């Protein structure tokens, strides 16, 4: 149980109602809500002083904040999360909103890309917010691939398919990767594309890795048999061929070019393993979550929230998501059913087309 949910279970009816009224008032007006305003709306008739005491307690718990001295209160990020998770009353989808969504997506076009473009436009128009559409992963021959470093632990892969479809996926790169190493990986992969799908590319990379390992084994076999070298961590991605006594090696009549060749093959093997990791991470993509404010670092600076719902194919497998990005004081009670209904529509339309 989260801290917010624990606090909710510990609150009495009065505290819970005061908290709910403050949040609802803030979401509706965008302004702090004062104790005098609440005395007119609470089901229980209590004084403004009593309400102020309750609001001070809620502020102490980290659920409310006062932007100015002697002003009303607004919900904190934790307070918004608790409200959304435990107190939000989701309304039925408005008839007019439903009609607009149905009309926008009522086209008979078989183009999934066009459908999802219309979904984004519909959500933006109905909610007056920025829409977010995560499309199903495209499994088609590739034309080009680029890796872009966003931060030390975040990277973007841009996939351009032969049919003109473009897809962006965010992933966490393997440790130690740099923008330069990502460019090298992209250059190598683009040289292999030749109309292959992402799955086929991964198979090619596994074959390349196996071939390189076999070359190293052949060259190193004599050194290992004679006891001059030994495998360390054999079979692991961090395996190394340890050469014992470099000075003694010269007397064993082992050509220096053999050692240079092994070193070169090892470097190449490690590069190919890194590229295979990139392709694996690209294929896995990123999961879907619901974020509020700085729970997502992408939105922390703008103070925005994302309400998102996944959509599924006929096998009940999540293949994408639709959502709305807006200020943290979104009208969640209205937005949530809109996003949910849109996700159901998209899932049904894509299933019908397949």
């Amino acid at each position: 149980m989260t801290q917010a949910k624990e606090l909710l279970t510990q609150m009495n009816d009065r505290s819970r109602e005061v908290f709910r009224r403050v949040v609802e008032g803030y979401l509706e007006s965008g302004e702090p809500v004062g104790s005098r305003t609440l005395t007119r709306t609470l089901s229980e008739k209590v004084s403004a002083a009593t309400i102020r005491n309750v609001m001070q307690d809620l502020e102490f718990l980290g659920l409310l904040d006062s932007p100015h001295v002697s002003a009303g209160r607004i919900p904190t990020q934790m307070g918004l999360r608790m409200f959304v998770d435990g107190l939000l009353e989701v309304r039925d989808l408005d008839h007019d909103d439903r009609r607009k969504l149905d009309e926008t997506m009522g086209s008979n076009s078989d183009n999934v890309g066009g459908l999802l473009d219309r979904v984004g436009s519909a959500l933006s128009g109905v909610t007056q917010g920025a829409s977010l559409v995560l499309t199903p992963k495209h499994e088609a021959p590739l034309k080009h691939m680029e890796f872009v470093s966003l931060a030390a632990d975040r990277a973007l892969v841009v996939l351009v398919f032969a049919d003109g479809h473009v897809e962006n996926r965010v992933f966490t790169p393997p440790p130690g990767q740099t923008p330069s190493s990502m460019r090298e990986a992209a250059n190598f992969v683009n040289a292999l594309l030749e109309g292959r799908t992402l799955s086929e590319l991964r198979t090619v990379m596994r074959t390349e890795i196996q071939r390189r390992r076999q070359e190293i084994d052949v060259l190193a076999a004599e050194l290992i048999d004679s006891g001059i070298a030994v495998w360390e961590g054999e079979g692991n991605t961090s395996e190394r061929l340890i050469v014992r006594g470099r000075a003694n090696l010269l007397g064993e009549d082992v050509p220096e070019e053999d050692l240079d060749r092994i070193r070169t093959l090892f470097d190449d093997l490690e590069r190919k393993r890194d590229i295979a990791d990139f392709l694996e991470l690209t294929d896995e993509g990123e999961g879907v979550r619901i974020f509020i404010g700085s729970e997502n670092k992408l939105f922390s600076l703008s103070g925005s929230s994302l309400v998102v719902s996944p959509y599924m194919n006929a096998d009940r497998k999540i293949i994408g998501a639709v959502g709305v990005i807006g200020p943290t004081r979104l009208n969640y009670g209205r937005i949530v059913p809109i996003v949910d209904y849109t996700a159901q529509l998209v899932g049904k339309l894509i299933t019908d087309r397949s």
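Residues 152 and 178 are 8 Å apart (CA to CA). The longest strand covers residues 142-151.
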